[in-house]
Input
Amino acid sequence: MKFDLHCHSNASDGKLPPSEVLARAAAAELSLFALTDHDTIAGYEEVAEQTHPFTLISGIELSSVWSGVSVHIIGLDFDPKHPAILQAIDGLRHAREVRAHMLDKKLAARGMPNTLQGALQFCPDIGQVGRPHFAEYMVQQGYVQSANKAFDLWLGSGKIGDIKTEWPTMESCVKSIVEAQGVAVLAHPLRYKLTFTKLRRLIDTFAEAGGEAVEVACAQSPGNLQQALCQYVAKSDLAGSGGSDFHSPDWHWAQIGRIDPIPKAIQPV
Output
């Protein structure tokens, strides 16, 4: 079975509308697909009632924190009308809105006024506006030459735009997905740059909270660490999931359906 269970549209920080993302999923001849926008199901709801040549399941990627580390939890095949998932989304929208206003003030203090208003040109929903949208506006205004430069100078890790956000705990996000009859998946665990000892703790805590699967099949997976991760997931009796983390056609390294296979020792989610 060909699948992709981690993709984004412009309902969050992706470049393409949901319908175009699904058209690419069809072109990739997938059998199973999930649109997992950050902290919203607006994109999924837009296309859920349409006819597709594959099975479309509900999806979301929830922002959370564990032990001071920002961690993403994917929810799959949940009830999109369930109060638990809707309450989680409302809380995350508020956190994102607060962060956007804080970023606007910080950039204004550095001689770049009204960046939030400008970012909303690229993402009209203030509950979804993020640093990539601020970067687009900064390029448009000539403050920086490229979006990459915006992150290098202002928005990236350790810069003034790297604002600590009051995300919910990982455990509460897992609980919201499980209560909504969905499957909780730990997204791209090797991107958190944890020691392997701490990564094992993360996976153990995730499983204890009710998480069922770990994203072990990605577009790009470092060799030795990936092998150790898969061995630990198999040992922990967790399922394996996979996705491209597609955001844009320009990201040649992350295209829909182009993911590594799930190892045979791990049960596919």
Notes: The two ends are 12 Å apart (CA to CA).
